[in-house]
Amino acid sequence: MKLIFEKSSPGRGGVRIPEDRISEHDIIPADLLRAVPADLPEVSESEVVRHYTKLSRLNYSVDTHFYPLGSCTMKHNPRACEAAAALPELCATHPLWPQLRHGGLLTQGSLQILYSLERMLAEITGLDEFTLQPMAGSHGELTAVMMMAAYHRDRGNRKTHIIIPDSAHGTNPASATLGGYRVVTVPSDETGVMDLEKFKKALNDETAGVMLTLPNTLGVFNPEIKEIIGAVHAVDGLMYYDGANFNAIMGRIKPGKLGFDLCHLNLHKSFSTPHGGGGPGTGPVGVCGKLRPYLPISRIAKTKDGTYTLDYDFPKSIGYIAPFYGNFAVLVRAYAYLLMLGREGLRATSDRAVLNANYVQEKLRPYFAAVTAGRCMHECIFSGKTLRNGIHTLDLAKALLDRGTHAPTIYFPLNVPEAIMIEPTETETRETLDEFCAAMIEIAELSKTDPDALRNAPVTTPVGRLDEVAAAKNMDLTC
Ligand SMILES: *Cc1c(COP(=O)(O)O)cnc(C)c1O
Question: Pocket of ligand 1, candidates 166, 269, 381, 421: which has the most ligand atoms within 8 Å of its Cβ, to mutate?
Answer without folding.
Answer: 269
